[in-house]
Amino acid sequence: MTRVLYELAAADPDRRFSPFCWRIRLALEHKGLSFEGRPWRFTDTAALAFSGSDKVPVLVEDGRAIADSSVIAGHLEAAHPDRPSLFGGPAGAALTRFHVAWTDQVLHPALVPLLLLDIHRHLDEADQAYFRRSREARFGKALADVCPDPEAQLAVLRRTLSPVRAVLRSQAFLGGEAPLYADHAVMGAFLWARGVSALALLEPDDPVEAWRLRMIERLGEGSRALAFG
Amino acid sequence: MTRVLYELAAADPDRRFSPFCWRIRLALEHKGLSFEGRPWRFTDTAALAFSGSDKVPVLVEDGRAIADSSVIAGHLEAAHPDRPSLFGGPAGAALTRFHVAWTDQVLHPALVPLLLLDIHRHLDEADQAYFRRSREARFGKALADVCPDPEAQLAVLRRTLSPVRAVLRSQAFLGGEAPLYADHAVMGAFLWARGVSALALLEPDDPVEAWRLRMIERLGEGSRALAFG
After folding, report:
1. Which of A109, A181, A222, B111 could be a cystine partner for A86, CB 3.0 to 4.6 Å?
2. Taking every annotated instance into account, which residue ranges of this chain make up the domain GST N-terminal (chains A, B) (predicted)?
């Protein structure tokens, strides 16, 4: 079975920085499924046209293209039931939607102001123009003005993590004794940040930092090379 | 098997308003376990002394006292495995900790400023004094000054619910097709509010409001009488 994951990349093709692509990369590793991670850039819409999607992640499994991280995760769980579960059963799958929604709607917005300029700096020229235009329209201000006080924003981010922190005080992973897709969704945000920024997002004694390091220890070889190569 | 649930009550013993007690009441109904809900007041510490806890909920099952809502929920699941599951399995139990932590640390703080004066108004005299003293110490200001702009706070509350809203756009309950303990944790907040305030917390077309009404439809008779009697 051939498997290709299209992943958002910077000018350097090994710099992968989409949180949504990272969660699928982690899900594929969780299931022990081999794949080729293929770099893709914002403005490379022609390369994705075959899939019907204009965004990554797109997973192509035996010629079938699947877009949208949540759809891909559901597909992986259904298509590979003999492999370690991403959700721990139907109730777990339903409950995980909250972790994913919280990551997308609360965690990412707290993190993105800290990363915008770094992301822009790492893109190739065509993507830089696209990124500046689309993000300045989204935030209604110049990129450089989105985060006037990074220290205050860092404090917001750390406060935002409080429910994750509370859970990780009583168990090793959001999924319990081992990671589940809920962990991958949140970890995607940290690997996104890691891909473009050297900023220490967490205090060394934060239980979330201890969890982040446990998640890094479990990265597959390919992911480790991309994140720390 | 006799079962007594000690629940926080206002001057009117049928006005029950602790979100933590409500989630256990919903959990007991979920499991189809009969119980007597016994009103308890903040300053009634003598009545709880037997349990070793100075707070409700306390569940007494066949003479054994169990305190703390999460501990009680875990006990109910372990002691009554033949009844409908609160978590849908071990992964679900681990994942539910995030819903509970988010409710305690994010949802309740967004809601409590809107309720403080109403709670105070409904308490008996001894509890009023305790409540004012302890809450003014916690907020560092007079009760009347905690929420200078209720409309703005209501907007905060509705924004805070965005990840719940996102989940409920794609499924009927946080637990999927039927409620799980994650639903009871969040619903506890709404029944707390309902117990003391007539404020419409949600817009009629909000998916969270549709879910709240579905949860109300499923209340047992005793709970319905307390919440709407």
Report:
1. A181
2. 8-84
B180 and A CB contact within 8 Å: yes
pLDDT in tens, B106-143: 999 999 999 999 999 999 999 999 999 999 999 999 99
Q: Is the ipTM of this complex over 0.90?
A: yes
Which CATH fold would you assign to the domain B90-220?
Answer: Glutathione S-transferase Yfyf (Class Pi); Chain A, domain 2 (1.20.1050)
Tens-digit pLDDT profile for residues B141-194:
999 999 999 999 999 999 999 999 999 999 999 999 999 999 999 999 999 999
For residue A35 the two structure tokens come to 């794949």
| A169 contacts chain B (CB < 8 A) | no
Q: Give the pLDDT of residue B89.
A: 97
Q: Where in chain A is the domain with CATH 3.40.30.10?
A: 3-79
How far is residue A29 from each of residues A9, A17, A136, A214, B48, measured CA to CA in Å?
Answer: 19, 17, 35, 15, 51
CATH 1.20.1050.10 residue window(s) in chain B: 90-220
**Chain B: residue nearest A103 by CA?**
B163
Contact across the interface for B91 and A85, Cβ inside 8 Å: yes
Q: Please report residues of B whose CB lies closer than 8 A to that of A106.
A: 162-163
Angle at A105 between CA A177 and CA B163, to 5 degrees: 70
Contact B91 A163 (CB under 8 A): no
